[in-house]
Amino acid sequence: MKEEYKKYQDEAYEIVEHASLEIGSRLPGTANERKFHDYMAKKLEEIDIKPVREEFSVAPRAGIGGLPYAGYVGLILSICAFIARQVSTLWYAMAALAVVMLFWLVSSCFLYRTWFDKFFKQKISQNTLGELVPEDGKYDYTIILSGHTDTSWNWKHSESGYWKKDKPIAALIATYGKVGFGAVCVIGMCLISIFMALIYIFGGELRQMWALKIAQTPGFYYFNLAMIIIPFITALGSWFIIAWNDPDENNASRGAMDNATGIALSYEVIKYFKENPDKMPKNCRIVDCNCGSEEVGLRGSMAFAKEHKNDDLTQNAWNINIDSVADKDYFEVVIKDDWQMCRFDKDLEKMFKDTFEELGIVSKTGGCIHNPVGGCDSTPMTRAGIKSVTFAAQNPMLTYYYHTFRDMPDRFEPETVGLGFEVVLSVIEKIAKFQEENGFNGVNN
């Protein structure tokens, strides 16, 4: 690392320590999330950049934060299954509940749609922006450096892997096994409820239809016998889903890696160019975007894209979204959110891969991954017409420190964050060169 970069590395790590140790957990829409925004706003003021706050409403439990509700539905259906053996009309209500829950689960928790937000308690979150323009005030394009300020609820099953961290296979079973078993039980109970309702609806009204024939088969007889035991099993699995997200704010993730590192690096890069105007890309504006409420379903980046859809912040714009830079063996560019069905910019992807090669970075992920679950802030940016990818240095497997209170700064070295700083500067140089040679060519995916 160049000697001139070291102070930015150390300052970035200090921001990480302050966020995780002094402020602590920063759940979406909470006072601690706002404290971190206030802290970063003051940091921007220290380098003579005016911070701009953009508030928006968020329903923290409407999306991933509400996953325990799916467990409660599974538990309710499991209990009602006993009663429905005697009161068959109860299957109709159970099926209706199952359909609503499954639609909410897919739309809100998997696809991050906001359709159900109005039915949940609202809180106020915010984005905090700071922009650095060339000394003459003229620019042709914008580079947005983004990270998210909030942290996740503590995932109990992931945290339990801490005690097996030296036995990776056992840790994976402890994490994925419980979650997978719980998901199968909840969804299975929903499908059983819908199936039984259809049997009684069609079996009662159309005596010669397939439903009545199914009800008279030996298989259906044995299925009814199995239903004496199945609800006990699904009730246990549903409890695993209920226990997934610890609702206690005091136990939430401290968010050192995810994502105080992203916030710190975005700030240090804009500070570097503020203090070294001669290194500033020609005709370029740089924006530090502190996004709120990412963990509840990318709400901050969605609000940013909506707020600026008609102004030049989404025109001729590049976004380097930085999300978790801590695991030194896993430097990578995230090129797609599989669940969101969104492919990120190929030009930026190549720039990151070339940078990894130039800096001699060897990653266990090969320097490139798809985001296998959930989503990242590059999705709303890409959909807004901004060229975007997400840069990370994080083990993509569910680990004991991912979304748990064990996400602390003493787990990783300042040098890893410093290398992340060097990567981002190198990519910005490539963006500037690309602009000069090609202009802005829009999202390439």
Provide a descriptive summary of the structure in words:
There is one protein chain. The protein has 445 residues and is of the alpha/beta class. Helix content is 49%, strand content 15%. It has two domains: 3-59 and 125-153 and 249-438, Zn peptidases (Aminopeptidase, 3-Layer(aba) Sandwich), CATH 3.40.630.10; 65-118 and 160-246, no CATH class. It contains 14 helices and eleven strands. Strands 1, 2, 3, 6, 7, 8, 9, 10 and 11 form a nine-stranded mixed β-sheet that branches. The chain has a two-stranded antiparallel sheet with strand order 4-5. A hairpin with a 4-residue loop joins strand 8 and strand 9. The mean pLDDT is 92.
Output the structural class. Answer: alpha/beta
Backbone CA Rg: 25 Å
Please provide the ordered H/E string of secondary-structure elements.
Answer: HHEHHEEEHHHHHEHEHEEEHEHEH
Average pLDDT over all residues? 92
What's the CATH H-level homologous superfamily of the largest domain?
Answer: Zn peptidases
Helix content: 40-55%
Got a strand count? 11
Number of helices: 14
Cα separation of the termini: 32 Å
Query: Can you tell me the overall shape?
Result: elongated
**CATH topology assignment of the largest domain:** Aminopeptidase
